[in-house]
Design a protein that fits this description.
Helix content: 10-25%
Shape: globular
CATH architecture of the largest domain: 3-Layer(aba) Sandwich
Strand order of the largest sheet: 4-3-6-1-2-5
Bound molecules: flavin-adenine dinucleotide
Number of domains: 2
Distance between the termini: 21 Å
Oligomer: single chain
Order of helices and strands: EEEEEHEEHEHEEHEHE
CATH class of the largest domain: Alpha Beta
Strand content: 25-35%
């Protein structure tokens, strides 16, 4: 394992830096967005993550902000019995956290193939950063447990004509979002995406990532698949 230092060298993603909690905004009863100060010279690309170092824990979060934003924002699922998510949910404004980063490889790779973004829950976060950074002409499939958990749906409806919110078949929601697919993303992709080769970016729950990867092998051979497993 790589040794950490207290160095603030900006070109060392393992260096521990400090970020102060500026504000918290609840997106639903299960998820919230927080904004932190951005350490000086903290450079990142859309799709990168930051790591919180808290007591003996390390927890990674995908950055919602764009590389040009003055602050760092993340979107967090509130795991009620989680070890760290509740800390972020209840910390007082002004709390200073130790973070490192940027980390990861889930960045956008431009190509001749059309990009297809697929997310479950808070796995939408890197795609928010992609879209806010100016990436266009993408299809987005977002699966959630209820319409309230389809975070940023208002933004994405404006950003792409190929926004596909997916709610599992067993969901009983009174106010369904327009164009909602009643089922998992695999079924929605099968229904809405014409056969061809694409660049698939998959983020969130490992089961979705496994199932969509199998679908790509079967239905979209020659496509590229990039993945970010949250849990
Ligand atoms: C590369 C990477 C990027 C990540 N980015 C994000 C992000 O942008 N937003 C985010 O909310 N989480 C993200 N996570 C998950 C995050 O790091 C933590 O695991 C999560 O916040 C739970 O931490 P905890 O200590 O509270 O829970 P723990 O006590 O460690 O319990 C873990 C359990 O929490 C549940 N869980 C973890 N993450 C999620 C989630 N996102 N949605 C629903 N249930 C979950 C699962 O049941 C998991 O088994 C990311 C993980 C990785 C590896």
């Amino acid at each position: 394992m790589q040794k950490r230092t207290d160095s603030t060298a900006p070109d060392n993603p393992m260096a521990i830096q400090t970020a102060e909690l500026l504000q918290r905004r609840w997106l639903s009863k299960n998820a919230f967005e927080i904004e932190l100060t951005r350490p000086s010279a903290f450079e990142f690309e859309a799709g990168h993550t930051i790591c919180f170092i808290h007591e003996s824990m390390e927890r990674y979060y995908s950055v919602l902000s764009t590389p040009d934003d003055p602050t760092l924002a993340i979107c967090v699922f509130y795991v009620p019995r989680g070890s760290f998510a509740p800390v972020l949910a209840h910390a007082a404004i002004g709390t200073r956290f130790n973070i490192s980063g940027p980390h990861g490889y889930f960045t956008f790779k431009p190509s001749a193939r059309a990009p297809v973004f697929v997310a479950t829950g808070t796995g939408i976060a890197p795609f928010v950063s992609f879209a806010r950074s100016g990436i266009k002409h993408f299809a987005l499939f977002h699966e959630a447990t209820s319409s309230e958990e389809l975070y940023y749906q208002t933004d994405f409806k404006k950003l792409t004509s190929a926004y596909h919110p997916c709610l599992p078949a067993e969901t009983t929601v009174a106010a369904m979002p327009e164009g909602m697919f009643q089922g998992h993303v695999v079924g929605c992709i099968t229904t809405h995406l014409t056969r061809g080769t694409y660049d698939f970016y998959l983020c969130g729950h490992r089961e979705m990532i496994r199932n969509v990867t199998l679908l790509v092998d079967d239905r979209f051979p020659g496509s590229h698949v990039y993945t970010e497993v949250f849990f």
